[in-house]
């Protein structure tokens, strides 16, 4: 028998359903539903909730209500409410909306960067210098999110060095936390470990987070594998929001309920009440008029109904 | 960084969709569809396919066509076609149908055994003595399947000693392979490792297999964790057959496509062509009139369609 790697004793789960999740849902979700969702999630015990995105509503209509949401949610002391900020205009909006953390972003894939924002990775990150400085000046937390760190829809493989390079750039901008994201959900466990280890050579291990999508069903295995190399922050989305599981090319975030169920079984502390999360998942799934995409959530709900 | 446990270089995937999977589907599947499914799976490269169950058709109407299926499939040399045999009558039927392997079964949960077959675990396994001897006498492979090894719907926790005890009884009956099954899909990775390590104290490590259901979304993480302790045989079901993902209390087997995708990524050899499995999954899902439950299968099919 092999000796097992030890796991972190506790992890932080960043709930990204209200932003990364809902942003990718086709149906328009009104502000009051989002507010209720965020409040339910805060009451479940999340320390960090991605609640808003101050991008142009022309690009992302679903996020047009971000200010309304941030204004109306019941702020729970100690909870970090995050907002995506693509530029200084977005930063000013996030500041006005009293975001606790702003999120800047870049890709580890040169092809993805060129195709999506028509500039190099290096240029795209340099553009965030103003936002990063303003965040620091205003005492806001700064998070950097790196997409396509495990694979790219355009170029396929993404070199480990490219990931490390972007991590270094995010670090140099002063990020407090850096997300290593599998945007298209293609990673497998040993690859995950290799990428995380390479990222950890460029940034504090306890400041790195894993953001996995369940496109190929690998997300939970990748989270477990990440923990084996010491990663202790993970993103997840209540009820697997973000890409309908019944639609072509579904690319939902890993479901929070599945992650919490695993953490419970592993004896890893999260500080989050799974039952309240299951309720929140039922709430938003009912609004969207479909069964949730969390297997644990559905199993727990079915058990309750019996 | 922790030192990682090494993984097996190759694994055997036992495709259980045509039996364990379809048996739990409500819709009646005619023999010709099953035959086509088994033939497609054999052509994909599986070494072992669970194709039939010689139980009373009164109990399991879906399996009433088992003889027709076994008679009509194209036997691919080297492939082991397995059949469940609850008793000597079932064994005789399996022998007549030219099964290569017969499967006997018991539970690791005393409560489950009493509730389902009204006798103790020990008694239930002793009843298989005749089948076990007949299998040996006729040169058939003998597999023992242990249900509820990670949890029970009636008694909850299942002691490690109870698993080890049943493994020992199956071993003493002469089993060539013993399945450690998470019938209700409740296991998490470290528990999985603890159960597998305990089972391996009672039987050859290379004769143990992991049989996981994805009820709580944990199956793939559990398979990965099992590999870390040296398990190299896994059961899976094409397209996640066995319990509709859209129904209450869904309890499908882990999807073969998701397992194969992970193995490919891990560089672990299976000898199986994932593309042919995806086709087989589309074939049976179309027959059942629903989207398959394999995330990798759906993602690959969507990618092809683009």
UniProtKB/TrEMBL annotation, chains A, B:
A molecular-function term among this protein's GO annotations: hydroxymethylglutaryl-CoA lyase activity
The keyword Cell inner membrane appears for this protein: no
Annotated metabolic or biological route of this protein: Metabolic intermediate metabolism; (S)-3-hydroxy-3-methylglutaryl-CoA degradation; acetoacetate from (S)-3-hydroxy-3-methylglutaryl-CoA: step 1/1
Family matches, as Pfam families: HMGL-like
A Gene Ontology biological process term: ketone body biosynthetic process
Domain of life, source organism: Bacteria
Residues of the Pyruvate carboxyltransferase domain: 11-278
Gene3D superfamilies found in the cross-reference section: Aldolase class I (3.20.20.70)
The protein's Enzyme Commission number: 4.1.3.4
PROSITE patterns, per database record: PYR_CT (PS50991)
Top-level EC class as recorded in UniProt: lyase
SUPFAM superfamilies associated with the record: Aldolase
Keyword set, alphabetical order: Lyase, Metal-binding
Family: Belongs to the HMG-CoA lyase family.
NCBIfam families reported in the protein's UniProt record: PRK05692.1 (NF004283)
Protein name: hydroxymethylglutaryl-CoA lyase
């Amino acid at each position: 028998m092999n000796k097992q790697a030890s796991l972190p004793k506790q992890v932080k789960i960043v709930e990204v359903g209200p932003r990364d999740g809902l942003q990718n849902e086709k149906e328009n979700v009104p502000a009051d539903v989002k507010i209720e969702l965020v409040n339910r999630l805060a009451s479940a015990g999340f320390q960090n909730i991605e609640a808003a995105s101050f991008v142009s509503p022309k690009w992302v209509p679903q996020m047009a209500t971000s200010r309304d949401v941030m204004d109306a949610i019941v702020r729970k002391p100690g909870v970090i409410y995050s907002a995506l900020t693509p530029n200084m205009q977005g930063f000013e909006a996030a500041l006005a909306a009293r975001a606790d953390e702003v999120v800047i972003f870049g890709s580890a894939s040169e092809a993805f960067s060129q195709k999506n924002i028509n500039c190099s990775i290096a240029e795209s990150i340099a553009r965030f210098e103003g936002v990063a400085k303003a965040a620091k000046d205003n005492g806001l937390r700064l998070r950097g999110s790196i997409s396509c760190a495990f694979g790219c829809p355009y170029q396929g493989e993404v070199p480990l060095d490219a990931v490390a390079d972007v991590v270094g750039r995010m670090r140099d901008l002063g990020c407090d936390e850096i997300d290593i994201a599998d945007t298209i959900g293609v990673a497998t466990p040993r690859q995950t470990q290799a990428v995380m280890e390479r990222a950890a050579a460029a940034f504090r291990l306890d400041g790195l987070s894993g953001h996995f999508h369940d496109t190929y069903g690998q997300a939970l295995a990748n989270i477990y594998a990440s923990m084996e190399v010491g990663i202790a922050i993970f993103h997840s989305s209540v009820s697997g929001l973000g890409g309908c599981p019944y639609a072509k090319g579904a690319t939902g975030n890993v479901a929070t309920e599945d992650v919490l169920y695993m953490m419970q079984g592993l004896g890893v502390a999260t500080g989050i009440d799974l039952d309240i999360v299951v309720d929140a998942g039922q709430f938003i799934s009912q609004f969207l008029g479909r069964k949730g995409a969390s297997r644990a959530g559905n199993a727990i709900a079915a058990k309750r109904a019996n």
